[in-house]
Amino acid sequence: MNFNDFNLHPSIMDGVNALGYKEPTPIQSKAIPAAMQGCDIVGLAQTGTGKTAAFALPILQKLMQGKRGQVRALVMSPTRELAEQTNSVINQLGKKAGIRSIAVYGGVNISQQVYNLRNSAEIVVACPGRLLDHIWRSTVDLTHIEILVIDEADRMLDMGFLPNIKSILDCIMQKRQTLLFSATMPKEIRRLTEDILTEPVYIQIGETAPVETVSHALYPVKQHLKTALLMEILYQIQKETVIVFTRTKHRAEKVSEELKKAGFKAASLHGNLSQFRRQSALDGLRRGSIKVLVATDIASRGIDILSITHVINYDIPECADDYTHRIGRTGRINNNGDAWTLVTAADSGMIRDIEKILKSPIERKTIEGFDYTVTGPVSDKPRYPRKTDGNNIRTSGQSAGRELRNKKFNNRRNAVAKAA
Question: What is the pTM of this model?
Answer without folding.
Answer: 0.60
